[in-house]
Design goal:
With 449 residues, the protein is of the alpha+beta class. The chain starts with 5 loop residues before the first helix and ends in a 14-residue tail after the last strand. Helices cover 25% and strands 27% of the residues. It is elongated, with a radius of gyration of 31 Å. Strands 5-2-1-8 form a four-stranded antiparallel beta sheet, with no helix packed on it. Strand 14 and strand 15 (400-407) form a beta hairpin.
Length: 449
Amino acid sequence: MVMLCKICVEYRDFLKKSGLWFNKNLLCTELPTVLEANDTEKSSPSSLQSEESNLDIKKNSIFTSESKYTDLESDTDSLKLKPAKSVHEVNGPEQESKLLLEEVALSKQTALNLTSQVSQLGQPGLQGDSQKFLFKTSTLANGESTQNISLAFKQFMETETNLGHLQFNVEYIESLLQLKIHLVSATNLPARDSNGLSDPYVKIHLLPGIAKATKLRSKTIYKNLNPRFNEDFHYDGVTLDDIDTKTLRLTVLDEDKFGFDFIGEYRLPLKTLMRHEVNYFNVALEEKQELGDESDSSSRGKINFAVKYSKKTNSLYVKINRCTQLLPMDNGVSSDPFVEVALFPGSKENKSKFRSSTKRKTLDPEFNEEFIFSNIDLRSLLTKTIEISVWDKDFGTKNDFIGMVKLSQQRTGDELKHFFTIIKNPELYHEKWHTLHIREEKFSNSPSE
């Protein structure tokens, strides 16, 4: 077991908190190769002196007061250290402070070199608190006083990350309209319980939006300040417009018997994501932000369905797949949704309205149900309207309307495009996500209980 000196520990913490520790191309989990001792240390006859020299060599191999980083070569997997003088050769605290000042400046240059090389390789670079660190170390390196450099270095590492860090990955899959989040871990969280620990968990929201409808929650890791979650989450029906306008909020909380304690949060604007690739994040948690535009009162949810018209059977097939982020109608917490599919104007000969099963207490129901409207020729379909509405089932009272979508040649936008795609390309299912909107009185009636 290698014993690290105080400066070694500080440098190791710097790597972790600046984000360099988690860089794929920098193997910070392994100690550098131990430098060989000089001739005088090898020729020492005393076993006690030999043990002391070996300890000095191990210290020097990591981070001594006068050690120097060389410039990073093209292969960022390896870091080489120049030979270093022993710690015992440092004379006085002022000399030690000056040498530590040099280390801070060299660490700054090393981090900048690594960031530029990593960006060329297409790997995630320094983010968030790492940039703050580089700015502060630059200020310290150019300062006049060196007596308090060691104290300032410690204060930065303690104050800049007093809420801890959060590690996660985000990927947007445009072909599926899906936003995937992989929650990795949290580190150096502050204690919120009397036992000096916390019971952390993470809540994820997509803002602006309805909090209950977009909430995702991780498991709770009890009595741990460095929890590892390794959980996957996703949002369906996330369009390019959502990517340009919405923000992903991750909130770390401490679970209590009655309620919770806030630890920290991080907000990620989705428009900053790199498309078609996984985005890696190691970010410093921040204080809670109170913003007025977090809730979207006009949002009623989204629905995914597919429609096919068949000339062979003169039939219209409507397949209801699923809904997501539905408006909660039962005490603002949940809903019991079902879907109605209607074709207007209808005929007395054929059934013109169908109803799906009811899914209890969910805002993200999956239906996977298909309905068939028979004896419809293509010419008559051009004059009709396909109406798909979502309702909340209430037992003993009138059902609550959630939202609807209409497809016809009188509509506009995505509804019109979807309708003409069905007409122009028969015999094929055409699937699409649609945003639910408020009810229009024409053709729309509350379904029977």
